[in-house]
Amino acid sequence: MPTFAALVSGYGWHVEDLLRAADAQRVQLRALPFADVNASIGFAGSAVKAGGICLDDMDGVLVRMMPPGTLEQVVFRMDALHRLTAAGVPVWNPPRAVEAAVDKYLTLSLLERRGLPVPATWVGQTAEEAIAAFEALGGDVVVKPLFGSEGRGLMRVEHREMAWRCFHTIERMGAAIYLQRWIRHPGHDLRLFVLKGRVLAAMRRTACDGEWRTNVAIGGRAEAWEPDAEASQLAVVAAEAVGAVFAGVDLIEDVDAGTRLLIEVNAVPGWRALAGATGIDVAAEILAALREAAR
């Protein structure tokens, strides 16, 4: 029986769903806290462990969620994943993909290099330069945290005075200022779940009344959606661009330009809303694919 480890931050719905699917798939899955990862070099077998379990002995490791931490802690956790990958342990998603997808700027730069359509975006460190970029982007932008998910921390800024206050606040915090041209969309976006080079499932997320953000975590409504060839191709190539074996890829429709744009690739995607909307057992599909890769 294959034995996998899932590196987790807490034991919420997704971990329970993976454990349920593991029983059905006849695989052993150990949910281990990412914060407990440690590594030895030159003694004790030069191994990476978590919760007393040697991850080098696993048939595969799933990165479910990384807990918050200091820069050193996060870097070490990624180092441990790189060590496992170098030792031949299948790590999903690979550490390079996790590193790329967690960083919105790096994600978009990789997508652009592949010739994929992305929104006009500016990232910098000073409020003065951000004001100039705000005006160059048409005076209507979405301000995003460089690291973040589920629509948290997004703000639409349409007025120069508000922009001045917002950008100076971010500058004082020592954070990067990430601006993206406001895209007029039809009130919904598209989430496609890619697994090993194919779209496993897709949904349309519609914003609730009075809200422009479509994320289900903040009240958006999810419904199953059958992706067309263009959307599927964009999603698959986007996942490849960041090196992800599986990913949640988000597309938005630009009403004014009549085109679709890639706005995010999530290498640690959730699937609760997707599974509910489509009826597809995403957790079982991930474990079955990992089991195949481990053979």
Briefly note the structural class of the backbone: alpha+beta
Q: Specify the number of helices.
A: 9
Silhouette: globular
β-strand number: 16
Rounded Rg: 20 Å
CATH architecture of the largest domain: 2-Layer Sandwich
Strand content: 25-35%
What is the H-and-E element order?
EHEEEEEHEHHEHEEHEEEEHEEHH
The poorly predicted ranges are none
- The average pLDDT score comes to 92
Task: Give the strand line-up of the largest sheet.
Answer: 14-13-12-15-16
Please indicate the count of domains.
3
Under CATH, the topology of the largest domain is which?
Answer: D-amino Acid Aminotransferase, Chain A, domain 1
What can be said about the biggest beta sheet?
5 strands, antiparallel
Please give the CATH class of the largest domain. Answer: Alpha Beta
The residue fraction in helices comes out at 25-40%
The CATH superfamily label of the largest domain reads ATP-grasp fold, B domain
> First CA to last CA: what distance?
11 Å
Summary, kept brief:
The protein is an alpha+beta fold.
Task: Please describe the topology of this protein.
Blueprint: E1 3-8, H1 13-25, E2 28-33, E3 37-39, E4 48-50, E5 53-54, E6 60-63, H2 71-86, E7 91-92, H3 95-102, H4 104-113, E8 121-124, H5 127-136, E9 141-144, E10 155-157, H6 160-173, E11 177-181, E12 188-195, E13 198-206, E14 221-224, H7 229-242, E15 246-254, E16 259-266, H8 272-278, H9 282-293
Parallel strand pairs: 1-2, 1-6, 6-7
Antiparallel strand pairs: 3-4, 4-5, 8-11, 9-10, 9-11, 12-13, 12-15, 13-14, 15-16
